[in-house]
Design brief:
Blueprint: H1 2-12, H2 14-32, E1 39-46, H3 64-78, H4 81-97, H5 107-110, H6 114-130, H7 142-150, H8 155-159, E2 162-166, E3 172-179, H9 184-239, H10 245-283, H11 286-295, H12 297-319, H13 325-346, H14 357-429, E4 436-439, H15 451-476, H16 483-490, E5 494-498, H17 508-513, H18 517-537, E6 542-547, H19 554-567, E7 572-576, H20 583-588, E8 592-593, H21 594-599, E9 612-616, H22 624-627, H23 630-643, E10 646-650, H24 658-661, E11 669-675, H25 685-692, E12 697-703
Parallel strand pairs: 5-12, 6-10, 6-11, 7-9, 7-10, 8-9, 11-12
Antiparallel strand pairs: 1-3, 1-4, 2-3
Helix pairs in contact: 2-15, 4-6, 4-9, 9-14, 10-14, 12-13, 12-14, 13-14, 18-19
Transmembrane segments: 15-32, 453-475
Domain CobQ/CobB/MinD/ParA nucleotide binding: 543-626
Keywords: Membrane, Transmembrane, Transmembrane helix
Length: 705
């Protein structure tokens, strides 16, 4: 339903939907008929981002998101103002320095003298060599920028004619340039390509140089820190006479273990020799021992001298950490002692001790070995103390050396990491610039004309725009267009819609006697309204007709309804109750006035057969209660009801709030006229609410539907 209403709204404005697009088409045609042809040239750049043949062996494959980001960065670099400015400079230099410019001189350029052109040419060449940017805010270059803009060589004008994109998912970036000249398009594309590659290479090398310098400084710092730690360790070892703590500790631990083993063996030897001597002594009596000591005093002195030499050699042997050079000397002294013991035994060939000679020799040998073992024991113990002291002295050196070695190890790793990065960076330096132009732009054919497309688009866009505007107006429209809307928004029934007459006639006889289609429809609607009002009024005879606002056709419908009832053989009285605006009185000019009847100056009108009796008013600003008392008014109304079948009162509109209210006490039924197309706004809503709350209110008449 809403769609049909919207289509109806479009139909009502069909002329706008035709005229506006037609005007737009005409204007567009006038604008585009001299539109020059367009040429497009394309230049392709290989980036090497996805080309594995240009990458170093072992380089991991990049993720798709990373690849897209790299391509987006390159595209943005192409469209940088700094890059496009270089193209602008070359274009204006070409046009200023040649007799065949790409574009006709602009009005600004035509005003230049030859000297000013030479000066501008030199300025643009300097800007190009310095790779400077052109900005309109620069006071010194404002004139040059104005010249560029007049020739449409400025960055904004060029950027609108340049398209840069990645070719599908390939390794190539395509630069498309559009221009009105067949040679200008490839010139822009190729120049932008070259300037981009040059700018990118310059920027990349500058960044790499800065990065390389930074890495080298960092590498130098790390190497100096590592060497400083090594020097500190070297000085500490020299100062504390430290060679190799691990080896030294290992040697000392070995010597301590060896000496402890020898001490245990020597202890067992001492215990054994002591036991042997005690056992031999127990076999001699006191007399034997005295004789033995008396006879052996001289030989014992010789043996003691040899034992002293053996002790000295053994001490040297132990202190030398059991050096094998002393072993032969020890064995030689042992042999001498053995000979001395044998010599002593020869003295007992014929004496009381001859039987115990072997025990004496054994005791002497045991005593020599015991004495030697005791000497060895003290030497071994002393050497163990020295070795333990030496080991304890290595412990703090070990801690300091470990700290220095750990610091050197950390510094070495940092140095090697930076060195690896620096070498890798320098290795990739030659392969970093991978951009190259693989397809130069060449002059192409003219593109298909867009004139018809632009004209068609202008028509479609203007038509859609008009439809959109009408739709917005339709959505925001608060007016009432049909009976259903009026009933829904007021909550009161609509008795009948009355269409407007195209000829706007007020001749009742012409309306009711005419056989035209419009008149016939109008008469049928009046008949339907008459029927609805008769059912709504019931036994009541006095019907008041009002409207929300003035000029809604209330008086016209009151006159027509009076005539409609007279055509139904009813005795009809029409009273003009609108004192402020007596339209019915002015139109019909009746002889009887309401003021005279209420004042008793005129008799009540007499009904006419097949006619309508009209009571007018004098059009004063008076109100009904001011003309007569309530009882008089009621008496006159009752008398008129006795004379007529239907009494219609044309009251004032509801905007004159008190005037129509004066008729409510004597009214049997009340009907209101609402003109189609009028909105229901905050001004109208209170009047509608008042009408719908009245008991006499029977419904609405939608006029001019």
């Amino acid at each position: 339903m809403e769609i049909l209403k919207f289509l109806s709204a479009l139909y009502r404005r069909r002329f706008l939907l035709v005229i506006i697009p037609l005007a737009t088409v005409i204007i567009t045609y006038m604008l585009v008929r001299y539109l020059p042809d367009s040429y497009i040239s394309k230049s392709d750049i290989a980036t090497g981002i996805t080309d594995h043949t240009q990458q170093l062996p072992g380089t991991p494959d990049a993720q798709e998101s990373q690849i897209n980001q790299e391509f987006n960065n390159l595209i943005q670099l192409v469209l940088l103002k700094k890059t496009i400015d270089q193209v602008s400079y070359q274009l204006i230099i070409h046009d200023l320095a040649t007799d065949t410019p790409f574009r006709k001189p602009s009005k600004v350029l035509e005003e230049y003298t030859p000297e000013e052109k030479k000066e501008a040419l030199a300025s643009f060449r300097k800007l190009y060599e310095e790779r400077s940017e052109m900005t309109p805010t620069d006071k010194h270059r404002k004139k040059l920028y104005t010249l560029l803009k007049s020739m449409k060589y400025d960055d904004e004008s060029l950027r609108g004619k340049i398209t840069v994109y990645r070719v599908n998912t390939s390794d190539y970036i395509r630069i498309e340039a559009q221009a009105e000249d067949v040679n200008l398009a490839p010139y822009i594309a190729n120049t932008l390509t070259n300037e981009f590659i040059t700018s990118y290479t310059f920027m990349l090398k500058g960044n790499r140089l800065k990065t390389s310098d930074w890495l080298y400084r960092l590498l130098t710092e790390k190497m100096a820190a590592m060497q400083a730690k090594m020097v500190e360790l070297k000085n500490y070892k020299i100062k504390n006479r430290v060679l190799n703590l691990d080896e030294q500790a290992k040697v000392v631990y070995g010597q301590i273990g060896d000496f402890e083993t020898r001490r245990e063996l020597n202890t067992r030897d001492m215990q054994g020799y002591t036991a042997v001597i005690n056992a031999i002594n127990n076999k001699f009596s006191a007399t034997d021992r005295k004789y033995l000591e008396a006879t052996q005093s001289q030989i014992n002195n010789d043996i003691l001298g040899s034992k002293a030499e053996l002790t000295r050699l053994n001490e040297a042997y132990i202190r030398s950490n059991f050096d094998g050079r002393f072993r032969k000397s020890i064995d030689s002294v042992r042999a001498i002692i053995e000979e001395q013991i044998k010599t002593s035994s020869d003295k007992y060939i014929y004496n009381p001790m001859a039987a115990k000679a072997n025990l004496v020799n054994e005791k002497i040998r045991a005593e020599v070995e015991l004495e030697l073992s005791r000497t060895n024991q003290s030497l071994i113990t002393e050497e163990l103390r020295r070795l333990e002291s030496k080991l304890n002295g290595l412990v703090p050196h070990e801690a300091f050396v470990k700290d220095y070695e750990t610091a050197i190890d950390v510094a070495s790793r940092e140095y090697l990491e930076i060195l690896e990065k620096w070498n890798e960076f320098n290795l990739n330096g030659d392969a970093s610039v991978k951009l190259k132009q693989v397809q130069a732009a060449i002059p192409g054919d003219a593109q298909p004309s867009k004139k018809m497309l632009l004209i068609l688009l202008s028509a479609i866009i203007s038509f859609v725009f008009c439809v959109a505007i009408i739709f917005v107006l339709y959505i925001t429209d608060n007016s009432v267009q049909d009976a259903k809307q009026l009933a829904d928004r007021t909550g009161a029934p609509v008795l009948a819609p009355i269409e407007s007459l195209k000829n706007g006639t007020l001749d009742l006889k012409q309306i009711w006697l005419s056989s035209g289609t419009d008149m016939q429809v109008f008469k049928n609607q009046l008949r339907m309204l008459r029927h609805e009002l008769e059912e709504a009024m019931g036994e009541g005879k006095l019907l008041a007709i009002t409207s929300v606002k003035a000029e809604e056709g209330k008086s016209f419908l009151a006159i027509n309804m009076a005539y409609a009832w007279s055509m139904a053989n009813k005795k009809v009285l029409l009273i003009d109750g609108n004192f402020g605006s007596p339209n019915t009185t002015n139109l019909i000019k009746p002889a009887v006035m309401l003021e005279d009847i209420l004042a008793g100056k005129a008799a009540l009108p007499v009904p006419q057969e097949n006619g309508v009796v009209v009571i007018g008013n004098k059009g004063s600003d008076a109100s009904l209660p001011e003309m007569a008392a309530k009882e008089v008014i009621q008496e006159k109304v009752t008398a008129l009801k006795a004379l007529f079948d239907v009494i219609i009162v044309d009251t004032a509109a509801m905007e004159a709030m008190e005037k129509p209210k004066e008729w409510m006490p004597v009214t049997d039924s009340l009907v209101a006229v609402f003109e189609a197309g009028n909105p229901i706004n905050s001004f109208v809503k209170p009047h509608i609410q008042y009408l719908t709350q009245q008991e006499q209110f029977v419904g609405w008449i939608l006029n001019k539907a």
